[in-house]
Amino acid sequence: MGDTNQNYLTHPKGIMSWLLTLDHKRIGLMYLFGGLFFFFVGGLLALGMRAELAAPGNDFVSNDTYNSMYTLHGAIMIFLFIIPAIPGALGNILLPLMLGAKDVAFPRLNLFSFYLYSIGAIFFIYVLLSGGVDTGWTFYTPYSTTSNTNVMSTTMGIFIIGFSSILTGLNFIATVHKMRTPGLTWYKLPLFVWALYGTSLVQITATPVIAITMVLLMLERLLGIGIFDPAMGGDPVLFQHFFWFYSHPAVYIMILPAFGIISEIIPVHSRKKVWGYKFIAYSTLSIAFIGFLVWGHHMFTSGQSVLSQIVFSFITYFVGIPTGVKIFSWMLTMYKGQVSFTPPMLYALSFLFLFTIGGLTGIFLGAVALDIHLHDTYFVVAHFHYVMQGGTIVAFLGGLHHWWPKSFGTMYNQTIANIAAIGVFIAFNGTFFPQFLLGLRGMPRRYATYDPQFVEVHSYSTFWSGILGISIFIGVMNLLWSLRKSNKLDPGTNPWGALTMEWTHTSSPPHPHNFEEEPVLTHGPYDYDKVIVKPTFKK
Amino acid sequence: MDRLTEYLFPKQVSSFAHDIDNLFFFIFYASVVLFLIVVIGMMYLAIKYRFKKGDEVRLTSSLDHNTFLEVLFFVIPLILVTITFVWGIRSYLNMVIVPDDAIEIKVTGQSWFWTFDYPEGGSTLNELVVPVETPIKIVLSSTDVLHSFYIPVMRAKMDVLPNRYNVMWFDANQAGEYEIFCTEYCGTGHSNMNAKVIVMPQKMYEVWLAEAGSADDDLPLEELGAKLYSKKACNTCHTLDGTALVGPSYLQTSQMWGQERVFDDGSSAIIDENYVRSSILEPQIQIVAGYQGVMPTYQGLLNDRELDALIAFLKTLKEDSQI
Predict the structure, then answer these.
(1) For chain B, domain boundaries
(2) What span, in angstroms and rounded, lies between the C-alpha atoms of A475 and A101?
(3) Which of A477, A526, B141, B185 has its CA 20 to 30 A from that of B215?
(4) Distance between start and end Cα atoms, chain B
(5) How large is the average pLDDT for residues A349-378?
(6) Residue pair A350/A408 in contact by the 8 Å Cβ criterion
(7) Chain A partners within 8 Å of B96 (Cβ)
(8) Long-range CB contacts (within 8 A, 24+) of B283-288
(9) How is domain B3-96 classified at the architecture level of CATH?
(10) 3-state class of A507 per DSSP?
């Protein structure tokens, strides 16, 4: 299993060797810690919002502060954590390892992507420290062209991060096409690779649209070109079309990698061949494609034509069905397997529960007549948190626990990790399930103050949000605590008995060049019916 | 309305509300079934095939597909979403096709209040008065940013745009007072941009129409001012207790009566009747230092007596005055 004295974490040494590294694993780790930092910031903002919403009036912050908090919560979570963190962190660390490659196709471009992300992040930090921005992460015109908060810096940050996203997508696509080890054909790829591939396709095709939209918005503010501002003959609804033409596919940039993670965790921890491999692979691509055709369902109350309403509602249901079949595939993967209740598996099971609710509540919103009532209420807030947090972030936490021993060569306390996972599950439902009720009763979103009839449900949600914050914090601190020196595992460790190449062909943590020699494929990624690899776990 | 509907939803006041809630319950029960299949299936499989202490790691089944099950998983959701889709569209058409005999009311959204203009002339602020059991056609537009006009009990909502008219309609089947919310984010006062729809029996509505505007004629100025303070949406931005909201508190202005106030361009003026009057009619001319000049003009929305009333009301405010 390679030279035990050399791994990518300690070789080479020195701060410059990190800042100028071309190693995909190190770049992945930098994304990981960047992402976790902004997850923390975005989480604090969320807790601040919930504190304000515990009671109906302005009891904690003013309207303006609240508006800035919810805007930055959304923008930071989406543009600095969810979109870059899973492909940037787990994707970077794992893609070449899963392909048996030495690195991604363009290592320098990869480092450049990370620096673009960092520059974008600096813009956000500037906005955060200089009074915020109050337009909502959606930047609807004409409010965003007239607001006197930091709209320019925020859109500039998003514009720059967009390039990071495009270049990472480009890099991954080239890597999947060109860097597979001999014998690793498309149908032998781990499903996480398929998921990253689908994500990358969406990244390079959709992201330019948000970049252009942000530029137009900046030009509108600077020069008054009159494209969105009705005072100058522009059309504010045109902005919504541009924005959602990116931001709906962006939902799939956020959720497809999570699908990939779940497709890895469940077979490994059930020690069972994945159910419906080809279906999962193809549905990833078809979801990526159909995802481009449904943006109008974000605009069901904008006054678009009746025909548009019908068409967008119809196509929306077509994205739902392949996603639904995937859920059954993951469930049936456990059939006749050997299921271990490890922390990654608990997160995966919790994903199935939460994401199913997220998906099913999408059916309510896809029905136009019902959406009219629920649009821009807390029903929508609950729905997308079930998808984004219950789906993507829970899968991300599961993936982090699954590949932590691989990335760092250390094992966290599994009992604490399990408790945190269960805590996240319960507190998440406690926080967001009541919000469906708020929405049904007509509580609009983005309200700093609200009608007292909603107070009971709001304060309940606030209570659980505190527990949720604590649970996630414990889960992540438990991981970080495992990094202390005395905790090193044997480099040959394969704690889950996994069969994908990153576990069977290289050490934990991996060699700086990934593999000692070109890896030879001896089995498929899910051949638990043909190969036995016993879980090994020694210090 | 059964008890579950009552618990989950606001009242059903429009003629289509019942149908929409039924659509909700159809999707709800179908979802509960699908959800239980997933969760019970998941828990059953995870527990049945759990790796027990003392178990040997062994080769597991190579079973990885079952055509019958997969077709089933595809077809059942397909049938359910097809019904949902068709139902959703049919009900939607009822909500967009405005009956010919509808009364047309013009609604204007402005940061952060609503103006209602009635076909017989007359207008109200933040109070939409309509007769019961009559279709009401609402024609919406905005004078500034986007808003969205939402009446939960009617299950009706439509965005309010500055560059074109949007239309919605409803008919109320019971008299009462119901909430109106703004549901498109519009800045500082977004969550205060509420209004009421007051549904009256036909006869009362006719009386109201005839009396609109004249009913308050004999109120003393101070009382009329207190009434106008909330009726004309002053309370969205100006408090009476000294705390600053979007604009300065009335209490502060009252306490500084006769003193000098400094504006954002460095100039200043003595607070008196003329200052208050011009601040209401031409709010952009003198902007109090520390605030943003976001107040719209009330030119044409208040007559002279109403202006006098607001000024009289403001002057009476004291630290401990109760409203």
Answers:
(1) 3-96, 103-211, 221-316
(2) 32
(3) B141
(4) 38
(5) 96
(6) no
(7) 306
(8) B287/B263, B288/B247, B288/B248, B288/B261, B288/B262, B288/B263, B288/B264
(9) Orthogonal Bundle (1.10)
(10) coil
For the entire predicted model, the pTM comes to 0.91
CB contact under 8 Å between B60 and A451, yes or no, is: no
Task: Assess contact for B285 and B188: CB atoms under 8 A.
Answer: no
Q: Do residue B152 and residue A373 have CB atoms under 8 angstroms apart?
A: yes
With contact defined as beta carbons under 8 Å apart, do B261 and B271 qualify? Answer: yes
Q: Is the pLDDT confidence value at A3 over 50?
A: no
Contact state of A325 with B45 under an 8 Å Cβ cutoff: no
Count CB neighbours of B97 within 10 A: 10
Instruction: Tell me which architecture the domain covering B221-316 has in CATH.
Output: Orthogonal Bundle (1.10)
Q: What is the pLDDT of residues A198-227, one digit of tens each?
A: 999 999 999 999 999 999 999 999 999 999
Asked if B41's CB is within 8 angstroms of A230's CB, the reply is no
Contacts of A442 in chain B (CB under 8 A): 10, 150, 152-153, 179, 181
What is the C-alpha separation between B81 and B87, in angstroms, rounded? 10
Name the residue among A320, A321, A393 with its Cα closest to residue A354: A393
CA-to-CA dists, residue A278 to A111, A187, A190, A194, angstroms: 33, 8, 11, 10
What is chain A's mean pLDDT, rounded? 94
Quick check: helix, strand or coil at residue B147?
Answer: strand
Instruction: Compute the distance between CA of residue A254 and CA of residue A251 in angstroms, rounded to an integer.
Output: 5
Note whether A481 contacts B: Cβ–Cβ < 8 A: no
- Helix and strand totals (H; E) in chain A: 19, 0
Q: How far is CA B60 from CA A187, A272, A273, A279, in A?
A: 21, 6, 8, 21
Q: Please state, in angstroms and rounded to a whole number, the distance separating the CA atoms of residues B22 and B188.
A: 36
pLDDT at A85: 83
Q: pLDDT, tens digit, for every residue of A464-516?
A: 999 999 999 999 999 999 998 778 888 888 999 999 999 999 998 999 999 98
Kindly tell me the burial class for residue A73, based on how many C-beta atoms sit within 10 Å of its own C-beta (0-12, 13-18, 19 or more). Answer: buried
The two tokens of residue B189 are 């006062």
> Chain A interface, mutation test: which of B53, B144, B159, B182, most A Cβ atoms within 10 Å?
B159
- For B103-211, CATH gives 2.60.40.420
Put simply, whether A336 touches B (Cβ < 8 Å) is: yes
Gap between the Cα atoms of A199 and A168, Å rounded: 10
Token pair, residue A83, equals 């979109």
Domain range list for chain A: 22-504
Half-sphere exposure of B98 (CA within 13 A, CB side): 17
**CA-CA distance, B300 to B305, in Å (whole number)?**
12
CB contact under 8 A, A442 and B91: no
Work out the minimum CA distance from B315 to partner chain A, whole angstroms.
26
Residue of A436, A129, A335, A396 whose CA lies nearest to B64: A335
Note the pLDDT of residue B270. 87
Give the span between the Cα atoms of B206 and B130, in whole angstroms.
10
**Structure-block tokens of residue B158:** 């439509």
Cβ of A235 under 8 Å from any chain B Cβ? yes
Q: Cβ of A334 and B45 within 8 Å?
A: yes
Cβ pair B85:A375 closer than 8 A: no
ipTM reported for the complex, 2 dp: 0.93
CB B247 within 8 Å of CB B237: yes
Exposure letters A475-512 (e unless 16+ CB within 10 A, then b): bbebbeebeeeeebbebebbbbbbbbbbbbbbbbbbbb
Q: Answer yes or no: do A356 and B35 touch at CB < 8 A.
A: yes
End-to-end CA distance of chain A: 16
Class of the CATH domain delimited by A22-504:
mainly alpha
A70: which 2 tokens?
Answer: 């919810």
Q: Number of Cβ pairs closer than 8 Å across A and B?
A: 273
In sequence order, which residues have a C-beta less than 8 Å from that of residue B133 and are 6 or more positions away? B171, B172, B173, B202
